[in-house]
Predict the 3D structure of the following.
Amino acid sequence: MLAALAAKFAVEGPQTMPTYCPKRGKTSLLCFFLAFVVFPLPEIFPRLYWLSHSLWHCLIGAGYYILYSELLDEQRQSKAKKLPRRPRVMLHATAAEGGSDRAKAA
């Protein structure tokens, strides 16, 4: 992951690097750090391999989830700024237009 970011920085420049909210960035780094602290624990406690391995997966997954949710939020916001709002489409005809009984009741 770090090699891919370094290559992106070298080829495309710093303006294309993803930016993260400081709170989410710190939380994701904390998750990654804790995951790499937990990673060697099976060597120390072999009988608890299942626990440390499960914790490792959960912490790595949480770190990636936080990072990708930040990127997805950023992409959604940029798309929302670029695209004009679409008009709302009515799914049911209104009672005045001779719609179904459901539309008349609503």
User: Anything to note?
Assistant: The radius of gyration is 24 Å. The CA atoms of residues 72 and 78 lie 10 Å apart.
